[in-house]
UniProtKB/TrEMBL annotation:
Substrate binds at residues 49, 105, 233, 254-257. This is Pyruvate, phosphate dikinase. Catalyzes the reversible phosphorylation of pyruvate and phosphate. Mg(2+) binds at residues 233, 257. Belongs to the PEP-utilizing enzyme family. The active site is at 319 (proton donor). Residues 6-357 form the PEP-utilising enzyme C-terminal domain.
Length: 360
């Protein structure tokens, strides 16, 4: 337990835990962040963003090799290099989070973040892939996007290159089997598909995950319980939640993107004008900090209602930045979500806010 949580403050937090209904999870993808989150009382990982892992150490060269490959064979060659390290990532996380659920989101990068820019970077990828620099540059130019945040990211990447999600799912299940074997306690993986807008996308991606699970369980001679669910971060997904819940076993509201796509405001550029919008009372508060309860909130309510109509036990959480904001947590309580997920250092605030929301 973190020293800050000892003494009177610890007692207060215990009282809060006795009152709150909402579970509190954390957004974390390194073992250290997971440890911190757990020490602050997180009851699971609500969002593990795997794209951050792809920049670790020397991996970025293999990642670039995969993205720039001309065909599936080329991508698989790069993915084979990434699998052992990705498996190691999940082993560490499952070990720290023993006994608690871990929502692992499959790759969701704006593609341009992975493209090489400097001559030396192209040279490294060329030597790893055994192809010429000019060919790689041509391919990088083909992959250029004018609006990467609305482009080839999230499950669109999994739809076009299913082998990427297959490798990640394999890494998750191999890691889960390894940890179960070593510790005697099975991890609780929840595999999350990002940027879904249609039930069909989720169906295709769930099939990839289930197939990888089946293959790994057959190889290892053991089965691990897991869920497959989706982010709800596009207005279309919120509206079609009834259909999406036929496939997905849980929803996690990605309110960063849901705010961006509902308001039509770029999350990366909003700072230029949001101050004026708040000053003039157009928005009561920065909608990327505190949920736009009337707009984005209504979509969350619609999705919760339609999702539960199809699947009464669909698990509902929130993992956008709003998951650590007390006013937004009050909304989540009213909307009947099951959990909020916040950055590790906001977990205590979320525990208190969840208790206050329950009392209200
Ligand atoms: C979100 O969109 O709210 C979310 C949690 O995902 P990311 O911030 O990684 O896009
Ligand atoms: Mg998102």
């Amino acid at each position: 337990v973190q020293p800050e949580l000892a003494g009177d403050f610890g007692t207060l937090m215990e009282w809060a835990d006795g009152v709150r209904r909402l579970k509190v999870r954390a957004n974390a993808e390194t073992p250290l962040d997971c440890r911190t989150a757990r020490d602050f009382g997180a009851e699971g990982i609500g969002l593990c963003r795997t794209e951050h892992m792809f920049f670790e150490g020397s991996r970025i060269t293999a990642v670039r090799q995969m993205i720039l490959a001309e065909d599936e064979k080329g991508r698989r060659a790069a993915l084979d290099k990434l699998l052992p390290e990705q498996r190691g990532d999940f082993v560490e996380i499952f070990e720290v989070m023993a006994g608690l659920p871990c929502t692992i989101r499959l790759l969701d990068p704006p593609l341009h973040e992975f493209l090489p820019h400097q001559e030396a970077e192209f040279a490294e990828v060329a030597s790893a892939a055994g192809v010429g620099v000019e060919q790689l540059k041509r391919r990088a130019a083909e992959l250029h996007e004018f609006n990467p945040m609305l482009g080839h990211r999230g499950c669109r990447l999994g739809v076009t290159y299913p082998e990427i999600y297959e490798m990640q799912a394999r890494a998750i299940f191999e890691a889960a089997c390894e940890v179960a074997e070593k510790s005697g306690e099975a991890p609780i993986p929840e595999v999350m598909i990002p940027l879904v807008g249609t039930a069909k996308e989720l169906e295709l991606m769930k099939a990839v995950v289930d197939k990888a699970a089946e293959a790994v369980f057959a190889e290892k001679g053991r089965t691990i319980e897991y869920l497959v669910g989706t982010m709800i971060e596009l207005p279309r997904a919120a509206l079609k939640a009834g259909e999406i819940a036929e496939v997905g076993e849980f929803f996690s509201f990605g309110t960063n993107d849901l705010t961006q796509t509902t308001l039509g405001v770029s999350r990366d550029d909003a700072a230029r004008f949001l101050g004026a919008y708040v000053d003039k009372g157009i928005y009561a508060r920065d909608p990327f900090v505190s949920l736009d309860v009337e707009g984005v909130g209504e979509l969350i309510e619609i999705a919760a209602e339609r999702g539960r109509k199809t699947r009464p036990d669909v698990k509902l959480g929130i993992c956008g930045e709003h998951g650590g904001d007390p006013a937004s947590i009050t909304f989540c309580e009213k909307a009947g979500l099951d959990y909020v997920s916040a950055s590790p250092y906001r977990v205590p605030i979320a525990r208190l806010a969840a208790a206050q929301a329950a009392l209200k």
